[in-house]
Design brief:
Largest sheet: 3 strands, antiparallel
Number of strands: 5
Shape: globular
Strand order of the largest sheet: 4-3-5
Order of helices and strands: EEHEEHHE
Amino acid sequence: MRCVIARFSFDLLKSEVERSMEGVSPQPVTGVSVTIGGHVYPVIQVGEVITKQDRRDITTGEMYRALTRLGFVCHNAGGLNAGSHNPGSHTTGSSSTGL
């Protein structure tokens, strides 16, 4: 299947993605993840491995679309550790300054 990831076109097969991820240790999941070969990987990690592109150039959305079109099951982190590293969940400013 042809898909665009990090502004480059790739022809991907599910079996090739599975083979590429064999032996790769999953990084901690903080966002959207995918199950491949019994392991749960962040979709950005998978994108980096299969495209050999810098992960900063890969978006979660393009990896989600590509992986689901290939038949993989993607998951939202949702309630897993929700808010533990969410800087937007804290109020900015200080009550002592009256802001």
